[in-house]
User: Fold this.
Amino acid sequence: MNTEISSVYRRFLNKISDYNFSLINNEKEVIEDNLLQLYISATPKFPQCRKDLGISYINVDGVPVDGSIIINSNLTSLEQEIISKLMLIEYLRPVIIKNEVIEQVLGDADFNLYSQANHLNQLQSLYNTMKKEVNSDISKYSFLRNGIYD
Assistant:
């Protein structure tokens, strides 16, 4: 049995509140394309998973055949959770980079240290916290695979 990618998407979307991922601001196809790109970026960061994280859906034009995207393996809840956290890290990376570039271009004197810089620090802290959390989950996953962790 395979896993529908929408179950991983739901886990990811429960972790964020970004209006770019709402149907009010974007069309369903745009949202799903953004989610798919995050999934594609996140899966190589999980080499400990011995299951096939590839997807099946694409026809010659690169469009989903029946509207659903299927992951080639039956993923456990822990595997889905790890991938959704990796997607969150991939989601945060460009936000942080964008803020760092703005800060460097404007310089410290022109940059509002009380809002943007604090926001950047909070984003970096969240990013680092998420990396630690997902690394912990991956370690637990690795121990589970080897029968060491209860």
Residues 77-110 form the longest helix (34 residues). The beta strands are 3-4, 55-56, 70-71. The chain has four helices and three strands.
